[in-house]
């Protein structure tokens, strides 16, 4: 899987764009150079504008519904199964058959849009990352005098556009920012639909991962977008196929409904476990009786997490699609063989739990983990491409709302507070310079794990949590928090070195992170605020070449 996104740019000398370069009502306020002009063509931007105009009111309404749900949860309500859609959950229906091209998804790898990393991921041996469409992507590393290119057999592409909540402020449609995921989807689909047309009916996609949804209403919008795109391209209905990341707490109660809305376009659901934990805290931000323990203790062994995984497997297999597992955060440790073996052992145990539970595949964050993950799934699945027909998990029919909401068990410690602070600041510093995933303390940290750090700090501060362990009896307050921040910034400087610390954006990251941790109300997403620090807007009619 490859995630799409937009970052800020350093502004060179501006140059005028002729009015005919963009469709009427479209305004490019971001960097627009010769390379970008191959993507931001007039026809491609017209497709972006068409989708934006057709679906923007639906998206706005969906976001308003999120706000209303947030108010209800903050007033004490709990998420749960919707009585109005019981007929869908209990009905006898199936999604469209899984295309043979992606029947086997036992190991998938995810990563950022950087040419060398894309090529390495495609060549990693994973079943899914991205199908290079034309197969022409290359990268010449001049520093190492090495050319990276694709092998004969590569992983399949699953493109992950942004969530519905993220705007694209560099592209204005009729005076307002375009919806980020519609920009991502439109540009990718438009520039490749000729290839999709050649392979239609053969089950070669295109394939997508859809993130951050909270209910079936949002899935229905995606289904309409897919149908509109298929009609524009002249390809068969159902050619576009998508896997939905179940990574918000409200969505776990709508898994049947989400699949139902996407039943002609679905190939499954995925346990986005780290975002799911973040969503648990965010959903219950107004519930002082639901405070999480240290984040390192919130794993798949927790009852609410196991219940989520088991119900996802039953739901997907009942409807004939993949139930994908989550990502183990460990990465190879090259300079410490003993620590490396311990990390691989944790990965193997996690993947063994997944395959025995009935998952059809899993995620890896690093090419070095592919073989270990593949061996676990192959040893337990044999030559079968998946477990859709063999593991039905009928025992999960008894999973209740209470199971999915059970309070996590564990302790809250001073080291937990310190780790949250240290990881959150370092991740954000990397994000501000364009890195969406960062190896820290032998784990791959991404926005989801940084979000857990942020919201947990906020929650502990808001409710004055009394710490256990090394901080026994100490209450988390602003004085303690600021002392921890100062000490952890010192530790970060020692660990990364003074030169890197000085040149990096650690101080800027610290300001953003601590402001969000101490804010009276919890921001919905860390990156929404941080995004404002990297966006570069240019005057109308100007570009950068």
Automatic annotation (TrEMBL):
Please name the top-level EC class of this enzyme.
Answer: transferase
Q: Which residues act catalytically here?
A: 160 (proton acceptor), 446 (proton donor)
Offer one Pfam family short name for this entry. Answer: MS_C
The reaction(s) this protein catalyses: glyoxylate + acetyl-CoA + H2O = (S)-malate + CoA + H(+)
Where's the Malate synthase N-terminal domain?
24-86
Keyword annotations of the record: Glyoxylate bypass, Glyoxysome, Peroxisome, Transferase, Tricarboxylic acid cycle
Main location, first listed in the record = other
Q: Which InterPro entries match?
A: Malate_synth_C_sf, Malate_synth_sf, Malate_synthA, Malate_synthase_CS, Malate_synthase_TIM, MS_C, MS_N, MS_N_TIM-barrel_dom
This entry's Enzyme Commission designation comes to: 2.3.3.9
Q: Which domain of life is it from?
A: Eukaryota
Gene3D superfamilies hit by this protein: Malate synthase, domain 3, Malate synthase, domain III
Q: Which GO terms describe its cellular component?
A: glyoxysome
Q: Which PANTHER family match?
A: MALATE SYNTHASE, MALATE SYNTHASE 1-RELATED
> Which named protein is this?
Malate synthase
Organism, scientific name: Corchorus capsularis
Q: What is the lineage of its organism?
A: Eukaryota, Viridiplantae, Streptophyta, Embryophyta, Tracheophyta
